[in-house]
Amino acid sequence: MDKRPLTIHHVDAFTDRPFAGNPAAVCILETDADAKWMQDVAAEMNLSETAFLRREGDAWRLRWFTPTAEVDLCGHATLASAHVLWDTGVLPAAATARFQTRSGLLTAARAGDWIELDFPAIDVHETTAPEGLELALGVQPVHVARTHQDLIIELASEADVRCCTPDFARIRALPTRAIGITSRASTPEFDFVSRFFAPAVGVDEDPVTGSLHCALAPYWAARLPGTEFRAYQASRRGGFLHVTLDGARVRLRGQAVTVLRGAFA
User: Fold this and answer.
1) Is residue 113 within 8 Å of 16, Cβ to Cβ?
2) Which of 17, 102, 195, 255 could staple 72 via S-S, CB 3.0–4.6 A?
3) Does the active-site annotation cover 189?
């Protein structure tokens, strides 16, 4: 790996102001880096995701790491990565950011003050609740569904989503990577709300989760009118997304702001 000093960018995604939304670290690499080194950096940053970018032809190779594991798809760190490429002038302002990832080609484009991500929709199927789910969440599920990795739990109300106090040790013991909880919104400016718990990969609660909305888009399109939604992830930091289901793709719009930059010693 190149031994020249590397810059790491701390970006708050799915927000237009610092100290809200979901923080991600972004590092642009000049050459290949060892996966263990990237995992060590992610553990040191101790954010829900750290993204590593390396130019690859007309695109960028993009990998995402939680403090404990590499993941297949991450929305907020992709949003943060595109923001850094434009903010630093590495990518021209009018150019589309193209990312080669474990989930195929993903793109990001500017749309006024927003960034629009083009992501794959994630299939969601109804399932039965695993034993211990209600104890883990401390609330009664209305519907239980599953993606290929996670559980999607619909609750009766926005208040139930906001007030849910999960038992992370019990969640970690369930046969799932993570749990997303959701409900119709009672707050007028939103269509649905959600939260996301992933203690099995080192993130007890993710503040704003783009990949979750790749599953919530088809989930709510089957229950609400239309295919365009205003979504709010009701974590302590909170974040707002425009979500559009477009066939087998989901378009996510959000904003981002750089909070700080640092260099590796």
Assistant:
1) yes
2) 102
3) no
Q: Tell me what the mean pLDDT of segment 60-70 comes to.
A: 97
The CATH homologous superfamily of the domain defined by 125-247: Diaminopimelate Epimerase; Chain A, domain 1 (3.10.310.10)
Q: Which of 30, 49, 56, 131 is catalytic?
A: 49
- Reduced to 3 states (helix: H, G, I; strand: E, B; else coil), residue 35 is helix
110 pLDDT exceeds 60?
A: yes
Q: What is the pLDDT of residues 183-200, one digit of tens each?
A: 999 999 999 999 999 999
Is the pLDDT at 265 greater than 90? The verdict is no
Per CATH, is 7-120+253-263 categorized as 3.30.450.40? Answer: no
- Using CA atoms, how far apart are residues 241 and 259, in angstroms rounded to an integer? 20
b/e code 203-236 from CB counts within 10 Å (16+ = b):
bebbbbbbbbbbbbbbbbbeeeeebebebbbbbe
The chain-wide mean pLDDT, for the chain, equals: 96
Q: What count of Cα atoms within 13 Å lies in the side-chain half-sphere of residue 212?
A: 28
3-state secondary structure of 65: strand
The domains of the chain are located at 7-120+253-263, 125-247
Q: Which two tokens stand for residue 207?
A: 């503040």
Of the candidates 176, 120, 118, the residue with the CA atom closest to the CA atom of residue 148: 176
How far is residue 85's CA from residue 235's CA, in Å, rounded to a whole number?
27
Instruction: With beta carbons less than 8 A apart as the criterion, state whether 37 and 50 touch.
Output: no
